[in-house]
Each structure stands twice: as C-alpha cells, then as structure tokens.
Design goal:
The structure is a homodimer of 218-residue chains.
Chain A lengths: L4 H16 L5 H8 L3 H13 L3 E3 L5 E3 L1 H23 L8 H8 L5 H10 L25 E2 L8 E7 L4 H9 L7 E7 L6 E4 L6 E3 L1 H4 L2 E4 L1
Antiparallel strand pairs in A: 1-2, 3-8, 4-5, 4-8, 5-6, 6-7
Helix pairs in contact in A: 1-2, 1-4, 2-3, 4-5
The structure holds manganese (II) ion (4 copies).
The site of one manganese (II) ion (MN) has 5 residues of chain B, from α4.
The first copy, chain A, binds a DNA duplex (30 and 30 nucleotides) through α3.
Chain lengths: 218, 218
DNA sequence: AAATAAATTTAGACAAATCTAAAAATATTT
DNA sequence: AAATATTTTTAGATTTGTCTAAATTTATTT
C-alpha cells in the first residue's frame, strides 16, 4: 500500500497526538495539521478505506496496527535524515526539522537501510528523540525534566521538548547541549527556577519555563 | 517563484530534449513525460504564466533564461544526490536514478550547498554526466563515442549514454567502468564492432550497439 | 490547390486535497 | 429535560494535474 506525502503527514500527526492524549479529536488534528475540521473528516474516510485508522463518524478515531507501523517508519526516516543533516552536513538542531519534513517522504526502504548503516545506526536524533529501528522498535530511556532532578544530583541532558531557534539560543548561552552533564545546586520555590553547575563554567540560574523543556537521565 | 515537483519534472524534460534537438514538440514532450499531448498543452500555459517557457499556441515553445537556470538547478540537485547515493551509500549506478528523481525536489538550497561540500564538490555524477556548479555552470569535456576512437589509440571511459541495469551488467562483464583505460585494437567494418584491450584482461570484442553507448576522452 | 494526414489545442470530466457554509450529532448548561 | 453550545459531518466549490473526445491549425500528398 502506498501513501501520498499528505496522508503520511496526517498519519504521523495522529501518532504524535496519541502519545500524549488517550484520544484524539477531529478539531485537535485539524489544528495540528493547519487544516479545517472538514478536511480532516475527508482524510479520515480515506485513511479508513486504507485500513490506517479505526473510524466511525462522530465516534472518534485511532491508528490501526498497520497505521502505527506506518507512523513509526515515517518517524524513523525523519529522525535518520535529521541525524544525517546534523552529523554529516553540520546543521544545527533548530535547522533540520523542516528539511526532514520533506526527506521523510522519499520512498526507498533500501535507501533508509543504507543511510542507517552509513550513519552508524544512531539511536537518537539531534533533539535526543529515539530513532525507531527497522522493525519500528523504539529504545525507551528513563528521562525526567530538569525541574524534577533532585537537589545536589548530577544529571545528563538527553533531549529537548521545545526545538525552536529561540530555545537553541538559550541553551547555547548556558553551554547546554545533548550529553552535557550538570549538577542541580538548588531549587527556588518562589518561581520554580533552578541553579545548575556545569564543569568549569560558573553556576547559573535557569527559569522553570526553560527547565521544563530540558529532559535528563539520572 | 516556487514550483511543484510536477512542474520541475516538465522543466527538466524540456531542457534535456532541447539539448539534442533544436526544437521540442508537444508530442515529443508528452512521450517523454508519459502523459497525453493535451496535458502538455495545459502545463505549457501554466509554465508560460510563470515565465519559464516562451510559448505561442501552435507555434512551439522553448525554455526562457529563467527556465534554463531552473532546469540546471534541478539537474545539479539530481546529480549531487546520485553521487551521494553512489559514493556514500554504495549504490550501483543503475540504482540511483529513481531515488534521485525524488530527492531532486527537496527544496533547501543550503542543503545542496552543504551536500556539495560534504561530497568534495564532485564534477561528474556516477554516469559520468557533469554536475552544474551553484551558478549553473557545466564543465564541458571533449568526448567521443567508443565507435569514434581511432584504431591503436588509448582512451578513458568518461560516461555512458544508456544507464540501464542491462547495460551495467554488460560493462561489468567487460570490466569497464568510468575511468577505465582501454586501447582500441581494431574495428570490424562488417558490423561496426570493435576489439578493445584493457590492462591484464584478454582482448574482447564489443558490438557497435554497445560501443555507441560508451563515451571516452582521448 | 484541394484533399488528406498529423499535430496541437479546446472542452468537459475526474481524483486529490483543500475550503466555506450549512446541517446533524453530541455535550454542556440552565 | 429543554435550551444552548460545541463538535463533527455533509454538500458543494476550487485548484492541480490528468484524461478522452472533438475541434482547430499546420503539414504533406495528391
Ligand atoms: Mn512531512
Ligand atoms: Mn527530531
Ligand atoms: Mn523528479
Ligand atoms: Mn545521472
């Protein structure tokens, strides 16, 4: 079964929305896709005939097993291309997403297999998100947001939630990158901000808003 | 000005057809694109409003200066991706074309600039075809088909016209690849076949049909 | 110079993905 | 349990790229 780029983008969006919520609505998906709810309904009917979603009118929808597999294969492509752009072509992580959004629709499976090997079978993309293997298997790691790291503990930065240029600018300023080890000195109850210490750099304070977007392994 | 993948495929086809003929017809282009002449007429009207072709109904068409530049930028992308697939991912030259046919439509110019540098600014693709530089400039080399190589002269294989798996199979059998040096021992007038000698391999005879598809530098 | 053939264009239709506006179903308030 | 609000779906258009069939223009024969 082949899918258009548009169908693939819908499938991926449904998958991502299903991760955080236990049911996805037509309105929510239309917001995510920047389309109108009426267009979503049309697409759901189409994806139902292709057995990608379970869908009954007015009763909601969800990915089928095949839909889930398809979503993971698109995400695999997306993240492998992001890794390529970052590791081989030297792009920053705030630049890779839009290019990967196009590259993920290149059809050849053999290309992806070889790209994966060429890159050394990376487990995580430049944002720290896991890259599904060729069977769609994702290596899950235990992560906590920086706001949850206990005082006096050392943690390793493992991924970022907000992947905007503005976030990258802040992280660069704080000398924080994926893999950076940091110690959480103290937590200020008033505003939820935290003081962290990295290596040779002086300790600095990070707002709760930023800390919430940084994931760590302990 | 942005273009759809379909428009880009038409632009590229017009460019390639114009190389060998001095005027391209609606029927010829429709054959090249595997569409009907009526569809070509529709597309020509569209490309005219975008100032990509000069076109007057019933009077023929040709690429404008902007159309030519656009064609060269698509061909540059196509051939750089082919080079990537061949040199970095180890694909054979009969496998790269269909993937490059999709990859050439990835929009980012910065991606292509960096890919070009990553690959070491190659001048020729895996088929020996020249890769236009970022300004659309093509390095032209003097080539002759193997049928035109003088007797007793040594030549270097520089490109292949027919790029099918069947052709690759034959070339592999003859130990011929791009860059291979060969001496033309003799030419048989009866059927136009030629006897060639490569290094340590015994001399062999190549049919005119094959020889016509092999280009060499002298 | 007609007649005929070939190439090209127009007219009208269709599938994909979108939209707006209206209708229908479901959920929430009173 | 009505009334009202929200969500979702349908109906009917629009755009892009394609098609078939018919009309028009240009080219080639007789
Ligand atoms: Mn995409
Ligand atoms: Mn990512
Ligand atoms: Mn193409
Ligand atoms: Mn090529």
């Amino acid at each position: 079964m082949t899918h258009t780029s548009t169908e693939e983008n819908y499938i991926k969006a449904i998958y991502h929305l299903q991760l955080s919520r236990d049911s996805v609505s037509t309105n929510l998906l239309s917001a995510e896709m920047n389309t109108k709810p009426a267009s979503v309904t049309d697409m759901l009917k189409k994806l139902r005939t292709k057995r990608i979603v379970h869908y009954q009118r007015y009763k909601g929808f969800s990915l089928t097993e095949a839909g889930n597999r398809k979503a993971l294969s698109i995400i695999r492509k997306h993240r492998l291309w992001e890794y390529f752009l970052s590791s081989k072509l030297g792009f920053e992580w705030d630049e890779v997403h839009s290019m990967a959004e196009e590259l993920e629709h290149i059809s050849s499976d053999e290309l992806i297999t070889r790209l994966d090997n060429f890159l050394g079978n990376p487990a995580f993309d430049p944002h720290g998100d896991p890259i599904p293997d060729h069977r769609g298997k994702i290596r899950v790691i235990k992560q906590v947001s920086l706001t949850e790291v206990p005082v006096k503990k050392t943690a390793t930065v493992s991924s970022v939630k907000n992947q905007s240029p503005e976030m990258l600018e802040l992280l660069n300023h704080f000398h924080i990158a994926l893999g950076t080890k940091l110690k959480l000195n103290r937590r200020f109850e008033f505003d939820g901000s935290v003081e962290i210490k990295i290596d040779k750099y002086p300790a600095t304070i990070i707002s709760e808003q930023v800390a919430l977007n940084i994931n760590c392994t302990l």
